[in-house]
TrEMBL record:
This is Ornithine cyclodeaminase protein. InterPro entries: NAD(P)-bd_dom_sf, ODC_Mu_crystall, ODC_N. Keywords: Lyase, NAD, Plasmid. The gene is ocd. Its EC number is 4.3.1.12. It comes from Rhizobium meliloti (strain 1021) (Ensifer meliloti).
Length: 355
């Protein structure tokens, strides 16, 4: 007698947008950011155990659609993500995403989740991890250039992980700055709204740039950047899109996630193919030096990498047991006799006819 019900392995936990928000509020946003930072750092410490490949990208004049896969040999993950800067004019998100974890041993999915919110969290956590290793000790002020969907996550991650207490905001659209200031009200951060990028970076030990225009841009020029700062450049994430003048790169020690991807998509796409960079995982493990002195300019040229998404997915999976912040989806055809998929299909019709 064959069971008409799917087996446990066929049921895949799914975290919807609503449940992701419930999970984050249940744990606390700053707690999630701090724990996610530690999870990402733990995976950076075992960087060499992962499969690594530049993301698979489909570019168009409207934006980009990407797949980001990786595996540590036991668990496989991928993320689907897009980047469409024009979407905001139509009331749509610039970036949307979903992701999946699977068992390498069977190939069966183990988690499916929204990743629009989760990507914002992991991007901020990765920035905070980099700043923890590269920013000046005792840094308390961050300039946030670009006050779109990522800004508040960046601010709260820097507060939770690095002890930042002051945020200086600037965006070419004053409404974006007003939105970010309003959302961060009550966070415990001192919020200063600025009228220019130059004003925003005055007195800031950490400068984060995160703009959405899909073009070569100059958000910061060389004369604006003083000695000793740490720059998180997270807006340049595809070919033809940068934020910093190349002279800033010449003066900085540049740290990256995965050079083959960053040389195509990051700020360093402006530079020669042999422009020197340091992989961030080597700083995390102590194999390479990060900040050397108080006058050094450090620059994290971050484009986002699949291992960070892997970390975020495994963090969510670990946090779900004992909660109701997910639902089981009957996603996998899993007949009692694995050789009789067609028979399962026939029995489904028979069961329907008897109802």
């Amino acid at each position: 007698m064959f069971s008409p019900l799917p087996s446990a392995k066929a049921m895949v936990p799914f975290v919807s947008v609503d449940n992701m928000m419930r999970l984050v509020h249940h744990l606390g946003i700053e707690t999630v950011l701090a724990e996610l930072t530690d999870t990402i750092e733990a995976d950076f410490r075992r960087w060499e155990s992962f499969d690594k490949t530049p993301r698979v990208a489909s570019h168009s004049r409207d934006g980009v659609i990407e797949l980001m896969p990786t595996s540590d040999g036991r668990v496989y993950s991928f993320k689907y993500v897009n980047g469409h800067p024009k979407n905001t004019a139509e009331g749509l998100q610039t970036v949307t995403a979903f992701g999946l974890l699977a068992e390498v041993s069977t190939g069966y999915p183990a988690l499916l989740t929204e990743m629009t919110i989760l990507t914002a969290l992991r991007t901020a956590a990765t920035s905070a991890m980099a700043a923890r290793h590269l920013a000046p000790k005792g840094a308390r002020t961050m300039a946030m250039i670009g006050n779109g969907a990522q800004a508040e996550f960046q601010a709260l991650a820097m507060k939770a992980v690095c002890g930042i207490d002051t945020i200086r905001l600037y965006d070419i659209d004053p409404r974006a700055t007003e939105k970010a200031a309003r959302n961060l009200d009550g966070s415990g951060l001192k919020i200063l709204s600025c009228r220019s990028a130059q004003e925003a970076i005055e007195g800031a030990e950490i400068v984060t740039t995160c703009t959405a225009d899909k073009q070569f841009a100059t958000i910061l020029t060389d004369n604006m950047v003083g000695a000793g700062v740490h720059i998180n450049a997270i807006g340049g994430d595809c070919p033809g899109k940068t934020e910093l003048h190349r002279d800033i790169l010449q003066r900085s020690d540049v740290f990256v996630e995965y050079p083959p991807q960053t040389r195509i998509e990051g700020e360093i796409q402006q530079m020669a193919p042999d422009f020197p960079v340091t992989e961030l995982w080597k700083v995390v493990t102590g194999e390479a030096q990060g900040r050397r002195d108080g006058r050094q300019i450090t620059l994290f040229d971050s484009v986002g990498f699949a291992i960070e998404d892997f970390s975020a997915l495994r963090y969510v999976r670990a946090r779900l047991p004992g909660t109701d912040f997910y639902q089981n989806l009957d996603m996998i055809a899993d007949p009692d006799d694995p050789r009789d998929l067609f028979g399962m299909l026939l029995r489904a019709k028979e069961n329907e006819e008897t109802i």
